[in-house]
Amino acid sequence: MLIMGILNVTPDSFADGGRHNDFDAAVSRGLEMMAEGVDIIDIGGESTRPGADRVSEVEELERTIPVITELSKHGVKISIDTMRASTAEAAIEAGASIINDVSGGLADPDMLQTAARLQVPYIAMHWRGQSKDMNSKAIYNNVVNDVISELRERITAAQDAGIKPNNLIIDPGLGFAKDAEHNWAIIDSVESFVEMGYPVLIGASRKRFLGGDTPDEREQATIDLTKRLATTGVWAVRVHSVKPHKEVLAQ
Ligand code: PMM
Q1: Of 33-37, 137-141, 212-216, which gets the smallest average pLDDT?
Q2: pLDDT value at residue 12
Q3: Which residues contact 145 (CB under 8 A, 6 or more apart)?
Q4: What percent of the chain has pLDDT over 70?
Q5: How many CA atoms lie within 13 A of 82 on its CB side?
């Protein structure tokens, strides 16, 4: 299982407290993750925490592109965490090689075609709407079946736009329009997502449903979950701390 290290270049990220919100800090954290054995660094300039406002395209580009340009010189694989086709394209030009779209192509009508044209791996996450009002959309008959069928729709849309099946990665989107019980139900049935036949990415790191009052208290729960997922066929986990996850996988 691969480790995708989170590098949020945002002043308001709930989980790393905005500590890496300037260029030097972001680059040095990226280099540190490389030294710790990260497989992919996921760079994002827009917070998607529940209730967050959108940032402008200019600001998203100013936050992410210089960091991507610098870190890519060091040869690490980089994904761009963005819902905007234009940002995705600029990031790929700057040296990123994977698009991570939390909206699964729903936020920007140009995203799927852009990903198809760029011919890079595209991560389609399950999403029901912008962070501002996603909590009100956490209504399911059967969360596992519903998320699988909504992901299937995104897979079809992606392939219709020209994305090759072997460039598709799926993600059930833990914490996005989902209550704690929904997130745990998805984790309990993660094999059903693996059986869809695409690499599965799981992003649980320090999210509220893990329990505890602070991100740091959720860290141990995140590591325990990585250990549990390691035997399920999941392709990668998206996490804030790299070293403890590499260690738990090596056990
Ligand atoms: N979660 C967040 C941001 N981007 N991308 C994917 N593919 N999957 C996720 O679960 C995901 C994501 C929000 O978490 P953060 O604010 O801690 O980065």
Answers
A1: 212-216
A2: 57
A3: none
A4: 96
A5: 34
State in Å: Cα 21 to ligand 1 middle. 17
Using alpha carbons only, what angle is made at residue 154 by residues 42 and 77, rounded to the nearest 5 degrees?
20
User: Is position 238 annotated as part of the catalytic site?
Assistant: yes
Supply φ then ψ for residue 78, to 5 degrees.
Answer: -125, 135
Query: Does pLDDT of 202 surpass 70?
Result: yes
Is the distance from the beta carbon of residue 125 to the nearest atom of ligand 1 less than 6 Å? yes
Q: In the predicted model, what is the mean pLDDT of residues 129-152? A: 93
Residues 6+ apart with CB under 8 A from 28: none
Q: Is the CB of 13 under 6 A from ligand 1?
A: yes
Kindly report the CA angle at 32 between 31 and 33, in degrees rounded to 5? 90
Give CA–CA dist 105/16, Å, rounded.
26
* pLDDT at residue number 77: 98
Distance in angstroms (rounded) separating the CA atoms of residues 71 and 166: 26
The SS3 assignment for 155 reads helix
pTM of the model: 0.95
Catalytic residue (one of 29, 128, 206, 238):
238
154 is catalytic: no
Query: Which of 125, 135, 151 for mutating ligand 1's site (highest number of atoms within 8 Å of CB)?
Result: 125
Q: How high is the pLDDT of residue 213?
A: 81
